[in-house]
Amino acid sequence: MKILAIETSCDETAVxxxxxxxxxxxxxxxxxxxxxxxxxxxVPEIASRNHIAVISKLTxxxxxxxxxxxxxxxxxxxxxxxxxxxxLLVGVNFAKGLSLSLDIPLIPVHHIRGHIASGYIAxxxxxxxxxxxxxxxxxxxxxxxxxYTKISIVxxxxxxxxxxxxxxxxxxxxxxxxxxxxxxxxxxxxxxxLFDFTRPVIExxxxxxxxxxxxxxxxxxxxxxxxxxxxxxxxxxxxxxVAAVSDILIPRIISAAKQxxxxxxxxxxxxxxNSFIRAALTKAADDxxxxxxxxxxxxxxxxxxxIGSQAYYEYSAGFCADMTLDAVASLxxxxxxxxxx
Length: 341
Ligand code: KG4
Fold this sequence. Notes:
About 45% of the residues lie in helices and about 20% in strands. It is built from 11 helices and 10 strands.
């Protein structure tokens, strides 16, 4: 089954063609990061406008690079939640138009479920059950994936995503936007004693996380130093922040797997690119004899191939939409699509 998949939930326009959930025939991406860098973060209106500008051309390109025409496509998949509402609407309406005109099924895909599916593309043998941490600029959660469409949230951030914390600190340090990768590089330059940044614990919710207080405390440290004329070591700040985020994430991922009696764990989302977090999770997985699945960086960040992969399993489970499909800005990943959403 060949699915043409569309992703426009944030500032990346992406279109891919995926066969039977596992084989990527083409995957095109237009990143708007440079346009938003000017403002230090994603401007929703700019994101929507740029999705409109490139989505048709990108779809043509995805078909061309897969050596296919619209007549070869069996279904259209689209990210319908969660994300920036205007950005999502562009993809959803474009997908509805394609589905209607080609008279083929329309498959709605939750963005987080798509991130989880990136592992199915990267590792042919990878299948549920497993624990998956999805860590990006907009989301941070740990999920138990019992089956391809059966997901339960073990824990999640109560406020900011880990990537948001990296991006905002990076901005204050003058590292540009999105600054996660630059912060990662800077952190690698430091090997001394670290700042003891907060690692919040939420009473009664051991798997939930919080990054907003951490973000504020690091930014306050930088501002206070500036005001008092104190010299700070930016690499030390970066390394201390990465260590704090890693200490928040990794014990929870490992405990979640132990608690749910699972020995396979996965890490995905843009923050899965972080070299320190990857290394720390690899060590923790080794120490516990867990199998670890971290997709390559090209699949960790937003892309449409992951949406096409998950769409295959959503379709197989009967989750299809009609022309009433609407975009949803906020929706938990454990909720399966139904037309009443
Ligand atoms: O999944 P993604 O491409 O988009 C969504 O947010 O959905 O993730 C982007 C996030 C940004 O916050 C970016 O700074 C972060 O991933 N990121 C990193 C690294 N590379 C990208 N964070 C830490 N270390 C990195 N090497």
